[in-house]
Amino acid sequence: MRSTGPITLNLPHFSGATRKLILIHLASFFGFLVLEWAARDIAHLLTGYVVLVPQSVFHGYVWQLLTFIFYPAGLLGMIFALLSLWFLGVWMEGTFGSRRLVELYLFTAVGAGLLASAISYTHIFGLRQDLVAAGPWPAVMGLMTAFASLMGDSEMYVFFVIRMKAKYAVAIFILLQLATVIQGGDRFGALAELCGALCGWLYFKFAPTRGVVFGASERYFGLRNGYYRWKRRRAARKFEVYMRKQNRVVKFDEEGRYIAPDDERRDPRDRKWMN
Fold first, then answer.
1. In what residue span(s) does the Peptidase S54 rhomboid domain sit (predicted)?
2. Where are the domains of the chain?
């Protein structure tokens, strides 16, 4: 049974996929700092390709849907985001495994970027297509919402100071971002975080138990195998018509496999002879 106790301030183990995600963020953060110091013009040029800009996304810069969460967006925000990723990521990885943690993190990032970019075209609340979003908070909000959906009565520390139930903490974060979207400030960034929270909830509400990637691959191979079976049955029917014109009778099973005359009396449940 899952524990409903609070996530304490004791630092969890720094390992697995959680460590890799955090190290990627840190490498990106310090890499951009060094580049900004050593080659400011190149840093500004690269920034335009990495951050999330709706009009760029819909003009072919689709990689921004993923890269924008790895662009540093302020020291304090980065610290809190990575600490949240550390605490929540370790729990998620220990409960569901490394693959599903990474899948959830990237799914919420891409989903948040795509939804926020699409909504910006409605121009609601003063949103525009040339606004910019960057930083890991949309993906972290997805983790927080997923945790609250699964362990809503568990207690966590908001800003590592205030202790409250996860569902209330996430509700407060969502209301704060919603207020930012309505009242002003970093509207597009707040919208991306709201979309990240929505994607995190959708993932654990509707995603297959083994994850989206596994479910999609299973569905793909199921459709592919079904198509091959249909082609085999169609070829079998055509061959039967051809053989009848030659005054010969041939038989195929329901999957289009040839049945030799000596095998017709075999138990239909015996599939040892199938290729």
1. 60-204
2. 16-207, 222-263
Cβ neighbours of residue 149 closer than 8 Å, sequence gap 6 or more: 200, 201, 204, 205
Contact 271, 265 (CB under 8 A): no
pLDDT at 159: 66
- Return the pLDDT at 131: 92
User: What is the rounded CA–CA span in Å between residue 246 and residue 248?
Assistant: 5
Lowest-pLDDT range of 38-52, 131-145, 237-251: 237-251
- Round to whole Å and give the CA distance between 186 and 182: 10
Q: What is the pLDDT of residues 134-158, one digit of tens each?
A: 999 999 999 999 999 888 788 777 7
Distance CA 53, CA 16 (A): 32
Extended strands (E) in 51-208 = 155-158, 162-165
Q: CB neighbours of 58 closer than 8 A, spacing ≥ 6?
A: 117, 129
Distances (CA, A) of 124 to 59, 116, 168: 21, 11, 27
Residues 88-94: what's their mean pLDDT? 90
SS3 of residue 209 by DSSP: coil
- Give the gyration radius of the chain's Cα atoms: 26
Residues near 187 by Cβ (< 8 Å), separated by ≥ 6? 125, 126, 127, 131, 180, 181
Please report where in the chains the tokens 């979003």 appear, as a residue.
Answer: 133
Q: CA nearest 141: which of 88, 102, 97, 184? A: 88
- The Cα–Cα gap between 178 and 269 comes to 60
Between CA 186 and CA 177 the distance in angstroms is 9
Overall fold of domain 16-207: Rhomboid-like fold (1.20.1540)
Contact by Cβ (8 Å): 129, 120: yes
